[in-house]
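Tokens for Alpha/beta hydrolase domain-containing protein 17B-like. Go.
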Amino acid sequence: MLSGCSVSSLAAKFAFFPPDPPTYTVEKDDGGRLVASGIPRDHSMDVLMLDTKRGNKVVAFYLRNPYARLTVLYSHGNAADLGQLYDLFVQLKVNLRVNLMGYDYSGYGASTGKPSEYNTYADIEAVYQCLETEYGVSQENVILYGQSVGSGPTLHLAARLPRLCGVVLHSAILSGLRVVCHVNFNFCFDIYKNINQIKKVKCPVLVIHGTEDDVVNWLHGYGLWKLAREPYEPLWIKGGGHCNLELYPDYIRHLCKFIMEMENITTASRLKKIRQNLQLPRKTSNASTATTTTFTTNCCCQIGIRKPTFSGCSQTGCLKLRSWKGSVYSCNWCCGGDGQ
């Protein structure tokens, strides 16, 4: 009988298929700047080499959009590297009007180490930390995007970011063994237990899955959508497979709608904070009267209206007006007298 560790290792072998050889390499140009060979020179893209807490170095591409308000952190599938994804990243950057950070897992592309579940967790944590420290991006402005196996590190990080803007799960898995063995219960040695992590995510979750996916059955996506605490309107692409959903018009259309709504939520949240910060303390009156109504605006005056009758006035309900500096006038209409 196989031990738990053996089964977990076996599942990992089924999970990772890095392109061999890699489709790009990383080198320094004459100015000492990292560039990726085999990819068009793009002055709006930074090539990064990041250290992880597990001792590996992972490559990341950061693509800027000057009109962006949100940043997408993209975790790719198990059989691609950044060289193959560059064109897609450019299209998403332009069509969604976002900044985009993509990265290669340990053992993929020009990243060092070997691919494993826990290495991918360390990989995405290092990339997110770079977004925070190097680019000043806060979690409120980040959308995590996970495709296929990439849904594992995506949900791992999403479960730890309580103020995250949103999550996109593209052809995602419930867990590693559920893809291989089609089991309906949990094993302690399973990998990428998304079925547990999804319950901890506190932001809107968009699920995209093809109904004819013969690698990861669409029921994985449906199960994750049902378990999400804040599910967004899902996209079930009729006839879509595992690796071709980007070719369907509904894909980019629905994704654009999601991004725009997340932008609006972020803007509304910011405006609410601004209003709270600008809210002035309420003025209190020192007058010894029963009823005082005070109107305060951003201008330079305050008007207090009081109902008690003036002393010496035979009319009830006459009004006494007090300017900002305390000057008092009797009512000519009630009393018929001159101002005091």
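The CA atoms of residues 210 and 237 lie 5 Å apart.
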